[in-house]
Amino acid sequence: MNLSRIISGTMNWGAWGVNHSSDKMSELILSAFNNGINSFDHADIYGGYTTEKTFGEAFLKTGINRENVFFISKCGIMYPCEKLPIKVKHYDYSEKHLIQSVENSLKNLKTDYLDCFLLHRPSPLMNISEISNTINYLLKENKIRSFGVSNFTVSQMEMFKGKLKISFNQINLSLTNLDSIFDGTLEYMQANNIIPMAYSPLGQYYKTDNPRLKKVVDLFSKKYNCSDDQLLISWLIKLPSGVYPVIGTTKVERINKSLGSLKIDIEKSDWFEILEASVGKRVP
Length: 284
Ligand SMILES: NC(=O)c1ccc[n+]([C@@H]2O[C@H](COP(=O)([O-])OP(=O)(O)OC[C@H]3O[C@@H](n4cnc5c(N)ncnc54)[C@H](OP(=O)(O)O)[C@@H]3O)[C@@H](O)[C@H]2O)c1
What we know:
Elements: E1 7-9, H1 22-34, E2 39-41, H2 46-49, H3 51-62, E3 70-75, E4 77-78, E5 90-91, H4 95-109, E6 116-119, H5 128-140, E7 147-150, H6 154-158, E8 168-172, H7 179-182, H8 185-191, E9 195-199, H9 211-223, H10 228-237, E10 244-247, H11 252-258, H12 268-279
The site of NADP nicotinamide-adenine-dinucleotide phosphate has 22 residues, from strand 10.
């Protein structure tokens, strides 16, 4: 597998965020790639179904060999927006929609395969047999090279057992969202060789005031001679399930700086002190 340990997320690169031009996106892709990040996270809906297309144009301009990068995309959320006449937000995992969505992503990203295809969110109307048959068909046709889910609980992953190999679950995981550490999700994934991709790895750290966590993160940033954001990511990397952070920055310098997290090895007692600062109490 050609997946870099840090994945660059594109959700905010386009119309949902900073609205980068394809030239600016090329700069970001090239810089990330030259520094060791070859993996890019997409979803059909990003930018109201527009960001994959701009990225695809940008990627072509970089001249990077397609085989040397790892493209992830997701589908299933039907999102009312300018581009599509959808009446109410809902999920669609029908055979027809899965195939159509992969074809759209391939066209937009200007490629003939996705390295990884994820179901974006669980739906109460998921038909596991229909999904498994369709994904197995897409794998056989080499339209996708691996399959995963996103935001799935243990029981939702269990439903696929014996029908379809789940290689990834992309989950909301950070020092300000520890649910998957305590609700059994990460243990289940470790036991079943499902790789966790952690989206929003900085969580609410820069968005809300959390003086208790900030004080401890500042303290250990000094000890490990790194920045706060590098420490937050290195804390996730220490988890034994082998977390792959999906970072969301739209800035070249921050994408490149994130790689510094991989060089930090937080000592066990420091790791627990940071956990304690996040949770607000000692482990039992
Ligand atoms: N599967 C899902 O359901 C799902 C849901 C959400 C996201 N995702 C994926 O995960 C990716 C990352 O999500 P995210 O954007 O929430 O990740 P994040 O990396 O936790 O947050 C990125 C945000 O933090 C800011 N930031 C980064 N470093 C900073 C610093 N040192 N100081 C202050 N602000 C800083 C960035 O601003 P700048 O751009 O200015 O650096 C950006 O606004 C998305 O792009 C998407 O691919 C998946």
